[in-house]
Each structure stands twice: as structure tokens, then as C-alpha cells.
Specification:
This protein is 33% helix and 19% strand. The chain has 329 residues and is α+β, with helices and mostly antiparallel strands. Helix 2 packs across helix 4.
Length: 329
Amino acid sequence: MSGHERELEVAVEAVRRAARVCRSVQAKIAAHGPSTLAKADQSPVTVADFASQALVCQTLLDAFPDDPVVAEEDADALRQPDGEPLLATIREELRPFGAPADREILSYIDRGCARQHAGRFWTLDPIDGTKGFLRGDQYAIALALVVDGRVTVAALACPSLDLPGAAAGLGSVYWAVHGGGAQAAPLSADGPGRPIAVSRERDVARFRTCESFEAGHSRHDESARLVEMLGIAAAPVRLDSQAKYAVVARGDAEMYLRLPTRKDYREKIWDHAAGALVVQEAGGTVTDVRGRPLDFGRGHELAGNRGVVVTHGLEHARILAALREIGVE
């Protein structure tokens, strides 16, 4: 294969596999309640987080053994005495995928702990939108290849987000290669994808916006001021995860705002890399609140950026100007 076709094939297969285990765990959560550990920020970490990361890292290791992976989780908690029951549950969830031994599971998870990386690496969020996952709402498995600071390949699985016109319950998967456009397909059905494109709506008052469900992730008050200033009629739709990127990329919204909640906060690269490329290759625009491109070459954070503004591109400059007018910078 030429270009990054092999990388794309592996990435899409990896997130599809991870989505299968996530759905399995989600069904059990619905029936029996969540089994979680608490991270330092107190957000829940589920069996699916770890199982998803193990599957994706195993898939990448088999195909690209020299590529580092920058991901959200590590296996330290699973090595503690009170982590053994959770590790046993993860082992059972991974049994249909080859029944790896515990040491292999821990090794796959820890493969996502690369922090020293340059040139070429993958970045993964094994479950983006963990709280949405636990509620039975939107979440995503987000995987992207970064080469010399540029997102080059992206795969984004959204198990609870159906494609328009597709049968309910199939979910969806989105992918893109830099310079090659974006495509989508039902998650639960093999076969080729179809090209997707952003909305062409030019009337700002008719814009549809989406933002993070959790208020701690974005300044909802400033989003509301912007919506009012621009005369946008519809209230923002709130949903978890990079599913918001997918909604913009396929033309079902014109804008997604992730406005800084404090001066020292920096976004994590795994929360935006895959979605940003999908939107850009679908014809949209992604910058920070100051209009700068997102820089994925400065470690595991977007250290050179403030917030994220995603649009279908037609009025991006106007939206940035309105954000400056209300004091967002």
C-alpha cells in the first residue's frame, strides 16, 4: 500500500475492535451498575477504558511495533491489590480477542504511556466521554497518527451515534487521512465508507451549535453570550466526547466550542487529534480561540493553544471576532 493506507486500515480496525468491547461492558453496566476506579481528577475509569486501550495498543503493536502511543490510561491501579477484581473482569472481556495473559494486558495498557515522543506517534483516548458512557449516552474511541506535529491519520468510533438514514443502534465510525477527505460508515457493519462534508449554511442565525455536556469542560456562560451576540436561534446541544466533531463533520451542526475554563488549563492532545482531522478533511476549520492552528507537536498537551473552536468554516473569522469581543482569549 502507498501513503498511509496501511495506517488507516489498522486504525479503523483498532477502534472497531475497541467499540465491541466497550459495548459489551456498557451492556453489563446497564444491567448491574458501574465498576470503577477513581483517577486523580475523580472521573470514573471503567473496565472498558482499560480493555479498549489494551486492544488498540495490541493492534498497533502488531502492525507498527516501533510506534510510540500517547494515551490517557496506565495500568498502575490494576497492579494494586484492590485492582485485582477489575483486572479479572478486563481479562474476561478480552477473552474473545485472544485471551491475553494478565502480564500481556498490563503491558498493552502501559504501551500507551509514552511521554517522550518525536517524529511519529499515535495518540489515543480509549473512551472519550467516560461519564456519557456510564450514562448510556455519547462516547467515542479516538485514535490518531501524528507525524512531525501534524495529525495525519484519524479514526473515530462513536458507538451511540447513528448515521442519518442508517438503522438505529449501529453506531458510526469516521476516518480521515491528511489531504484525502473524510468518510463515515456504520460501526456495526463491514464495508466501504461514504464521503462526508460539513454544512454549507451561511445564515449565522440558523447555525446549530454543540458543546461539552460537562460544565467543567467549557465555559457555557460565554458560549451563551456568543450565541446571543450572533443571533443564533437554537440553544446549543450538549453531548459528550468527540462525537461533537463527528456531528460537525457530517453537516449536522455548524459549530462546536470548547472555551477555556481557567487560564492555566491546556487541552490534552488525545481529546482533539482524531476529531480535528475528521472535521478539517470534511471541509471545516479547527483553531484555538485566538485563531491559531492546534499544535500537536508539543507533548501530551496542546501547550501552545487556548481552547478549541470548530466550525464548518464559512464564518470562522466572524466567530473568533465575536469571542474576542466578549473577552474570550
